[in-house]
Amino acid sequence: MGNIVSAIIISLQVGKPQTIGNNDSADSIDQAWTTGFFKEPSNKSIWLGKLNLDGDGQADLQNHGGLEKAVNVYPIEHYSYWIQHVALIDPRPGAFGENFTTEGLLEHEVCIGDVFQVGKALVQVSQPRQPCWKLARRWRVKDLALRVQETGRTGWYFRVLQEGHVQAGDKLILVERHHPNWTVSSANEVMHCRTNDRQVAQDLSNCIYLSSRWREKLTQRALTGVKENTTSRLDGPMKTDR
Q1: How far apart are CA 169 and CA 12, in angstroms?
Q2: CA–CA gap between residue 72 and residue 52 (Å, rounded)
Q3: Which domains does the chain have, with CATH numbers?
Protein backbone atom coordinates (compact mmCIF):
# COMPACT_ATOMS: atom_id res chain seq x y z
CA MET A 1 0.00 0.00 0.00
CA GLY A 2 2.82 2.39 0.84
CA ASN A 3 3.98 2.38 -2.78
CA ILE A 4 0.65 3.57 -4.19
CA VAL A 5 0.90 7.17 -3.09
CA SER A 6 3.75 8.94 -1.39
CA ALA A 7 4.77 12.52 -0.90
CA ILE A 8 7.10 14.57 1.24
CA ILE A 9 6.76 17.50 3.61
CA ILE A 10 9.08 20.07 2.10
CA SER A 11 8.29 22.64 4.79
CA LEU A 12 6.50 22.57 8.15
CA GLN A 13 4.98 25.73 9.66
CA VAL A 14 3.51 26.64 13.05
CA GLY A 15 2.31 29.89 14.56
CA LYS A 16 0.09 31.34 17.26
CA PRO A 17 -2.75 33.79 16.59
CA GLN A 18 -1.87 37.46 16.36
CA THR A 19 -3.79 40.68 15.79
CA ILE A 20 -2.72 42.97 12.96
CA GLY A 21 -4.18 45.96 11.13
CA ASN A 22 -5.79 49.21 12.26
CA ASN A 23 -9.47 49.77 13.00
CA ASP A 24 -9.14 53.39 11.89
CA SER A 25 -8.46 52.33 8.30
CA ALA A 26 -11.15 53.22 5.77
CA ASP A 27 -10.46 50.07 3.75
CA SER A 28 -11.88 46.92 5.35
CA ILE A 29 -8.89 44.90 4.17
CA ASP A 30 -6.61 47.01 6.40
CA GLN A 31 -8.74 46.95 9.54
CA ALA A 32 -7.69 44.98 12.61
CA TRP A 33 -8.14 41.23 12.51
CA THR A 34 -6.93 38.30 14.59
CA THR A 35 -5.57 35.28 12.79
CA GLY A 36 -3.36 32.23 13.10
CA PHE A 37 -2.63 32.47 9.38
CA PHE A 38 0.93 33.75 9.75
CA LYS A 39 3.10 30.73 10.46
CA GLU A 40 6.85 30.31 10.53
CA PRO A 41 8.81 27.36 9.13
CA SER A 42 10.58 25.03 11.52
CA ASN A 43 13.27 22.45 10.87
CA LYS A 44 12.79 20.89 14.31
CA SER A 45 11.01 17.69 15.14
CA ILE A 46 7.60 18.84 16.43
CA TRP A 47 5.01 16.94 18.42
CA LEU A 48 1.77 16.40 16.54
CA GLY A 49 -1.08 15.97 18.98
CA LYS A 50 -4.74 15.25 18.42
CA LEU A 51 -5.64 18.95 18.10
CA ASN A 52 -2.61 20.50 16.41
CA LEU A 53 1.14 20.76 16.17
CA ASP A 54 3.00 21.96 19.24
CA GLY A 55 3.39 25.72 18.91
CA ASP A 56 0.48 26.11 16.52
CA GLY A 57 -2.92 27.70 17.11
CA GLN A 58 -6.04 29.06 15.47
CA ALA A 59 -7.90 32.27 16.21
CA ASP A 60 -11.35 31.08 15.13
CA LEU A 61 -11.85 27.75 16.86
CA GLN A 62 -15.41 27.47 15.60
CA ASN A 63 -14.26 27.14 11.99
CA HIS A 64 -10.61 26.13 12.25
CA GLY A 65 -8.57 23.60 14.16
CA GLY A 66 -9.99 20.85 16.34
CA LEU A 67 -9.94 17.09 16.03
CA GLU A 68 -10.91 17.02 12.36
CA LYS A 69 -8.76 19.94 11.24
CA ALA A 70 -5.60 19.32 13.21
CA VAL A 71 -3.26 19.82 10.23
CA ASN A 72 -3.73 22.06 7.20
CA VAL A 73 -2.00 20.71 4.10
CA TYR A 74 -1.22 22.54 0.85
CA PRO A 75 0.73 21.30 -2.20
CA ILE A 76 3.70 23.37 -3.32
CA GLU A 77 2.74 22.51 -6.91
CA HIS A 78 -0.07 25.10 -6.75
CA TYR A 79 2.21 28.00 -5.94
CA SER A 80 3.28 28.57 -9.54
CA TYR A 81 -0.38 28.87 -10.59
CA TRP A 82 -1.08 31.61 -8.05
CA ILE A 83 2.12 33.45 -8.91
CA GLN A 84 1.08 33.44 -12.58
CA HIS A 85 -2.63 34.17 -12.20
CA VAL A 86 -2.79 36.35 -9.09
CA ALA A 87 0.73 37.78 -9.06
CA LEU A 88 1.35 36.88 -5.43
CA ILE A 89 4.58 38.54 -4.38
CA ASP A 90 7.29 36.09 -3.35
CA PRO A 91 5.08 33.47 -1.68
CA ARG A 92 7.01 31.10 0.55
CA PRO A 93 5.88 27.78 2.05
CA GLY A 94 3.12 28.61 4.50
CA ALA A 95 1.76 31.35 2.23
CA PHE A 96 -1.66 29.71 2.32
CA GLY A 97 -1.61 29.30 6.07
CA GLU A 98 -0.76 25.62 5.82
CA ASN A 99 1.10 23.55 8.40
CA PHE A 100 2.44 21.02 5.89
CA THR A 101 3.66 22.23 2.52
CA THR A 102 3.87 19.02 0.53
CA GLU A 103 5.28 17.84 -2.78
CA GLY A 104 4.11 14.85 -4.79
CA LEU A 105 0.43 14.66 -3.90
CA LEU A 106 -2.51 16.61 -5.35
CA GLU A 107 -6.25 16.79 -4.69
CA HIS A 108 -7.15 14.30 -7.43
CA GLU A 109 -4.69 11.78 -5.97
CA VAL A 110 -5.64 11.82 -2.29
CA CYS A 111 -8.93 10.46 -0.98
CA ILE A 112 -11.20 11.09 1.97
CA GLY A 113 -10.23 8.61 4.69
CA ASP A 114 -6.69 8.00 3.40
CA VAL A 115 -4.35 7.17 6.27
CA PHE A 116 -0.73 8.26 6.01
CA GLN A 117 2.30 7.49 8.12
CA VAL A 118 4.11 10.80 8.69
CA GLY A 119 7.18 10.57 10.86
CA LYS A 120 6.00 8.85 14.03
CA ALA A 121 2.37 9.92 13.56
CA LEU A 122 -0.61 8.48 11.71
CA VAL A 123 -2.92 11.01 10.05
CA GLN A 124 -6.12 10.71 8.04
CA VAL A 125 -7.66 12.93 5.36
CA SER A 126 -10.88 14.37 6.83
CA GLN A 127 -12.05 16.97 4.28
CA PRO A 128 -10.92 19.47 1.66
CA ARG A 129 -9.99 22.87 2.97
CA GLN A 130 -12.75 25.43 2.59
CA PRO A 131 -10.89 28.71 2.04
CA CYS A 132 -12.13 31.74 3.93
CA TRP A 133 -11.80 35.51 3.72
CA LYS A 134 -8.63 35.50 5.85
CA LEU A 135 -6.70 34.04 2.93
CA ALA A 136 -7.90 36.94 0.78
CA ARG A 137 -7.01 39.50 3.43
CA ARG A 138 -3.55 38.02 3.91
CA TRP A 139 -2.74 38.54 0.22
CA ARG A 140 -4.90 41.63 -0.32
CA VAL A 141 -6.80 39.93 -3.14
CA LYS A 142 -10.46 40.20 -2.24
CA ASP A 143 -11.68 37.27 -4.33
CA LEU A 144 -8.76 34.93 -3.62
CA ALA A 145 -10.73 32.57 -1.38
CA LEU A 146 -13.38 32.21 -4.08
CA ARG A 147 -10.74 31.58 -6.73
CA VAL A 148 -9.07 28.91 -4.62
CA GLN A 149 -12.44 27.24 -4.17
CA GLU A 150 -13.41 27.47 -7.85
CA THR A 151 -10.09 26.08 -9.11
CA GLY A 152 -10.16 23.17 -6.66
CA ARG A 153 -6.64 24.05 -5.52
CA THR A 154 -7.77 23.91 -1.91
CA GLY A 155 -5.50 21.53 -0.10
CA TRP A 156 -7.02 19.42 2.66
CA TYR A 157 -7.07 18.67 6.38
CA PHE A 158 -5.72 15.77 8.41
CA ARG A 159 -7.11 14.38 11.64
CA VAL A 160 -4.57 12.66 13.88
CA LEU A 161 -5.06 8.96 14.56
CA GLN A 162 -1.75 8.41 16.31
CA GLU A 163 0.21 11.23 17.91
CA GLY A 164 3.94 11.52 17.31
CA HIS A 165 6.82 13.69 16.20
CA VAL A 166 6.96 15.01 12.64
CA GLN A 167 9.32 17.32 10.78
CA ALA A 168 10.15 18.76 7.39
CA GLY A 169 11.58 16.06 5.14
CA ASP A 170 9.26 13.35 6.43
CA LYS A 171 7.54 11.26 3.79
CA LEU A 172 3.78 10.85 3.68
CA ILE A 173 3.32 7.13 3.12
CA LEU A 174 -0.14 5.81 2.33
CA VAL A 175 -1.01 2.87 4.57
CA GLU A 176 -4.81 2.64 4.16
CA ARG A 177 -7.28 3.71 1.47
CA HIS A 178 -10.97 3.29 2.25
CA HIS A 179 -12.75 5.32 -0.45
CA PRO A 180 -10.80 5.46 -3.73
CA ASN A 181 -13.77 7.08 -5.50
CA TRP A 182 -13.99 10.01 -3.08
CA THR A 183 -10.93 12.06 -3.89
CA VAL A 184 -10.51 15.50 -2.39
CA SER A 185 -11.22 16.86 -5.88
CA SER A 186 -14.50 14.95 -6.20
CA ALA A 187 -15.57 16.03 -2.71
CA ASN A 188 -14.86 19.64 -3.69
CA GLU A 189 -16.94 19.19 -6.82
CA VAL A 190 -19.92 17.89 -4.84
CA MET A 191 -19.73 20.64 -2.25
CA HIS A 192 -19.11 23.59 -4.57
CA CYS A 193 -20.21 22.65 -8.10
CA ARG A 194 -22.84 19.90 -8.11
CA THR A 195 -24.96 21.82 -5.66
CA ASN A 196 -28.32 20.79 -7.16
CA ASP A 197 -27.60 17.06 -7.07
CA ARG A 198 -29.25 15.86 -3.88
CA GLN A 199 -28.37 12.22 -4.46
CA VAL A 200 -24.64 12.80 -4.79
CA ALA A 201 -24.78 14.99 -1.67
CA GLN A 202 -26.33 12.07 0.18
CA ASP A 203 -23.76 9.66 -1.24
CA LEU A 204 -20.82 11.77 -0.04
CA SER A 205 -22.45 12.38 3.35
CA ASN A 206 -22.50 8.60 3.83
CA CYS A 207 -18.69 8.52 3.79
CA ILE A 208 -17.95 7.90 7.48
CA TYR A 209 -14.42 9.27 7.24
CA LEU A 210 -15.59 12.67 6.02
CA SER A 211 -15.60 15.34 8.73
CA SER A 212 -18.82 15.57 10.74
CA ARG A 213 -19.37 19.16 9.65
CA TRP A 214 -19.28 18.34 5.96
CA ARG A 215 -21.50 15.32 6.52
CA GLU A 216 -24.05 17.49 8.34
CA LYS A 217 -24.06 20.11 5.57
CA LEU A 218 -24.46 17.53 2.83
CA THR A 219 -27.16 15.62 4.69
CA GLN A 220 -29.11 18.84 5.10
CA ARG A 221 -28.70 19.65 1.41
CA ALA A 222 -29.86 16.16 0.44
CA LEU A 223 -32.97 16.59 2.59
CA THR A 224 -33.90 20.13 1.57
CA GLY A 225 -32.24 20.71 -1.79
CA VAL A 226 -30.89 24.00 -0.42
CA LYS A 227 -27.20 24.86 -0.68
CA GLU A 228 -25.71 26.52 2.37
CA ASN A 229 -24.80 30.21 2.19
CA THR A 230 -21.06 30.78 1.71
CA THR A 231 -21.01 34.59 1.66
CA SER A 232 -19.82 35.04 5.25
CA ARG A 233 -17.05 32.47 4.84
CA LEU A 234 -15.74 33.86 1.57
CA ASP A 235 -16.25 37.58 2.20
CA GLY A 236 -16.15 37.91 5.98
CA PRO A 237 -16.01 41.59 6.93
CA MET A 238 -14.63 42.52 3.51
CA LYS A 239 -16.86 43.79 0.76
CA THR A 240 -16.40 42.45 -2.75
CA ASP A 241 -18.03 43.11 -6.09
CA ARG A 242 -19.77 39.72 -6.13
Answers
A1: 9
A2: 9
A3: 6-180 (2.40.33.20)
